[in-house]
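Protein data:
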Amino acid sequence: MPRKTSRDLDSVTLPPDWLRRVGQTLALGAGALVVVPSQAVDLIEPVSGEVVMVVATDDAQLESVLVSSRKGEPLAETEAPELEPISDFAEKEPELAEPPAENSPPSGSADQKVSPVALEEAEGTGSPRVAVLPENGERVLADVATAYRQENKPRPARFHSVTPGESNRDELIEAWGEPVRTAKADGQTAGGEVLGYDLKPFKQVEALVERDLVTVVRVTLAEDATVEDLTRRLKLTEIDPVQVTDPQTNELLAVAFPEKGLTLLVKPTSAAAPLTGSVELAGVSHLVLEPIDARAFVLRSEQRPEQMLKAKLKDLRLAIEADPSDAHAHWLAAGWRLDAGLAAASEEAAAEAVRLDPSNPAHRLALAEALRAGGEFDKSVIETRKVLDDGSAPEVVRAQALDLMGRLAAMGTQKIADKTIDFHNAAISIADKLATSTDDRERRTAKDVLVSAHLSIAREVARRDYADKASTVAEWIGRASGLAEDRIASDDGGLELRLQVARGALAALAEMRPTKDPAPWLSEAQDTAAELLSTSTDPLFRARVHWELGESYQHAVRIEHLRGDSEQALSYGTKAINELSAGAEPRTTSPEAEKLVGKLYFYLGAVNAVHKKDHAEAIGWYDRGREILTAETTPSDFVVPRREGEELVSMGVSYWDQGQRDLAVELTEAGARLMERGVTAGVVKERTLAVPYGNLHTMHGELENTSKASEYGRLARGVEPAATKPKPEAKPAAKQTAEVKKEPPQRSASTQAKREPAPPNPRLSRRPGRPTFKRTMMR
């Protein structure tokens, strides 16, 4: 998502012509967003309008659109016909469309499109006559029982030798005889021809012919049959059905089987005779056979729970195979691939969605998210700015874009990073207005933005020099927890939100100095992950949970390093490696994931070097992470290094201690260059350069590089300590109009943790005959 976004839909956006039928026209959900992007301006300028902490209290209203008209005739009471199965195959789930690449992060021990139209009622012409099926009509769906074994590909069902989308008019008449009624189609099917047949034992059978091709077969049943009965008798039990409901009344309209192009239209219900029991007991009035339609797979993907990531992506692959021009399917695939950790595949899908529908800001925002996950930060900023510059972008998309821009701004120079909290506050201001919307999609997405933005502000406050940041960070995290728990309890939120909050809280504690005991939040992450894993067998979802729990342990390693508890840090490190290993496979193309692994190895090395004074063990860990931490990254005019330089300098000390002097100098000089860039950008204090300069002065002196030793000595002396400035007060968390719990959950009481003492000064111990080096103050 992470994190659920505007892909979290209950009523789904679909064109109104998806289900062709006589007497029914459906428009499912709200229409697709169409916007026109404006010219991008300065990428990191603040958004227009005043950014304030206090948010508005107006309720936002956004109504879903539904058009539904039922004109079906009452069913005749006749003897129920015997139905034959559509096929005898057992559907096998194919391999995931996005196979993992060969390279993976280091791990330890441990998944012909024909546009559909609606049939119009055909009036009878000429004298009635009956076209009798073979075998006296006893096998009424014999040809519908065609086997479905061709490479497990979806194939439309046949009705007595006629296949919609494949059979032409002559083949239809050859199979069924001359029609008893013909009529010209109008409305959405204008230009087509409706051929009506009296094929016993059905009440009537109609075929829509367009451009000499049979595009729809509609069968009006004369029997009483339920969804469950027909699913069993037609052997559709191996296919996951799609429920088509009225998004306003939740009335069931149809049940579709995408792999067969078959839809069961259910009898209308009323207040006097509502549907009771499960969907399987709904009465069926018509069978509709059509060509395979991509939108049926898209709808099924959106209806599946978040825990079925692999099945969601399979549905979207089938949709894209059926219609490569479906921008909506590409957009959804981009989002779920990103949640599964498939960063490169997500970027590919998002780029295609933008190419197909460049005016849709949600598609462009998905591309921006994928670019960020793929390490293309400058491009991500550009795409996000385009969304924010688009005056016609929906407010919920704008809120998401502001939240993303805040996360991006945190990576920039100090001037840019100073706008981080303003971006998140602007996102909160918009999302809070939408958090009471009657539109489920909008409301839930807005609540998810609120959780994300609160956690991001907590982390930003934690890493800054605020006098009262401990209590302020706790307040922001507590409110994020309350928002998440409210969403889980009352608005169809998943436990993934609780894990997101725990992970975000630990990330903030890892930035804060002095920090606090990570145990309360880590316990919540462990319990939540265990519950999620116990309820899902989906390999991609399980990998995601393992990875996010591993990330939580990684934060805990860093926190315990700051607190000076080396044994606990190393224990958490082992657990982090195990969890990250279990979730690593889908993330083999993710620079963000690779960087996390590299930093874990660094901190495990630092714990051994600083607290255990064991440099031999330290470089064992550094060796695992060094290639990742020193790898070339995508050149950026936006992102500036922060702790990356300090990490290399610290590694250099241990390599020097173990006699790898050339490597030690190389790492220290590289670290110094990164720290110099950070100083220029205003995100690293100039006085910290005294550490790498001093170390290099000593190193080159020992190596008898007199000129370099002298130069670095001069640089070290030239770094003057900055004057101490009063620390500003951190802004408290704003209150939202959406109702939330005032306190975080009992088991998440991070605000009750006692203040811990500052960690010891992490300098290397002196050894006889050895020069003394300073290790940078790693945070």
Summary: The chain has 23 helices and ten strands. Residues 539-563 form the longest helix (25 residues).
